[in-house]
Amino acid sequence: MNALIKRVLHFPIVKIVIGIVVCFSLFVVVQNFVLKPFFYNIIQDKSIADPIIHVISFLVLLAAYYFLFRFYDQREITELSIQFLPKEMFGGFFFGFFTISLSIFILYLLGNYRAYGISTSNTSIKFFTMLLFAAIVEDLFHRGLILRVFENWLGTHVALVIAMVVELQHVYNPNSSLISFVYYLVWGFTMGMMFVYTKRIWLPFFFHLGWNYAQPFYGSNLTGLDDIGSIIQSKFTGPELLTGGAVGIEDSIFTGSFLLLIGIVLYYRAKNEGKIVKGKLFKR
Predict the structure, then answer these.
(1) Which value, to the nearest 10 degrees, does the dihedral of the CA atoms of residues 50, 53, 58, 64 take?
(2) pLDDT at 202
(3) How, if at all, do strands 232-236 and 113-118 pair?
(4) Are residues 98 and 71 located together in one domain of the fold?
(5) Final residue belonging to a domain, choices 50, 75, 100
(6) Of 75, 109, 141, which one is at a domain's C-terminal end?
């Protein structure tokens, strides 16, 4: 009976469900019943309290994941290793921001983008910490848990397909279109490859953060949201295929092409370095 329970608990899909439920539930309880009551009571200004809550929630989620799987799997949690953190943090954020910047620059050269002012009054630390937490939720669960478990079980190729399908949950974002559908698949592939190549969540996480921050920075909508503020006041004109339309610059053909190119380069580098794995199920 004990052997059967152990097999059930360590079945990959069960492990994923337990990981998500336990970590997310702990975060929800801590944030809503500890952090918010405490900080809202001592700090009346939510623009100050909320960033603190976001950062602590970020750490709580990482700690919950770390200690759960340290106990659950009885292993080193290598996907959270900080051995190369500075390199992956600064490199990831830079390339995420740079990819969006490159698309903006092309639109500028084509006459589809015009900047007419700069203001910091429409953005805040609260907004950045919100992006920080939103990105870690996705990258910790999508890459650190779902992709990692399926790659170990079924191999890299099957795991990448699953990772791409998981990203289709974003089709419910405001203003999503058929182009968005394709983009979400590309996003899942490339972000998945960042994890496959490093076997850590930090590169995709910081790329994600730089990518998301760059869009409102240049005055673009962020995944269909148009009320999140901006630093550069700007105007996009021209075909939605080029500008991304109401979704934002991430739906541009330029941005999607750059993202796909990054994923392909990482795939071939991973393949040449022997980081594409077969998976335990097919090794028997």
Answers:
(1) -150
(2) 98
(3) antiparallel
(4) no
(5) 75
(6) 75
**pLDDT value of residue 282:** 59
**107/190 same-domain check:** yes
Neighbour count for residue 62 (Cβ, 10 Å): 18
Q: Looking at the structure, do residues 32 and 116 belong to the same domain, yes or no?
A: no
Provide the domain count of the chain.
2
Give the pLDDT confidence score for residue 123 in this predicted structure: 67
User: Residue 195 is which amino acid?
Assistant: F
Same domain, 88 and 207: yes
Distance from CA of residue 30 to its chain's centroid?
22
Is 98 in the same domain as 235?
yes
Alpha-carbon dihedral sign for residues 193, 197, 198, 199 = positive
pLDDT of residue 96: 97
Structure tokens at 138: 């996705």
Cβ-based neighbours of 268, under 8 Å, separated by 6 or more: none
- Give pLDDT, residue 264: 98
User: Coil, strand, or helix at residue 273?
Assistant: coil
Same domain, 172 and 223: yes
Residues in the chain predicted with pLDDT less than 50, given as ranges, are none
The string of pLDDT tens digits covering residues 72-90 is 999 999 999 999 999 999 9
Per-residue pLDDT at 198: 97
Here the tokens at position 91 are 């490199």
Q: What range does the domain containing 264 cover?
A: 83-282
Give me the pLDDT at residue 284, please: 53
109: Cα separation from own chain's centroid: 29
76: alpha, beta or left? (left if phi > 0; alpha if psi -120 to 50): beta
Please give the Cα distance from 261 to 120 (Å, whole number). Answer: 33
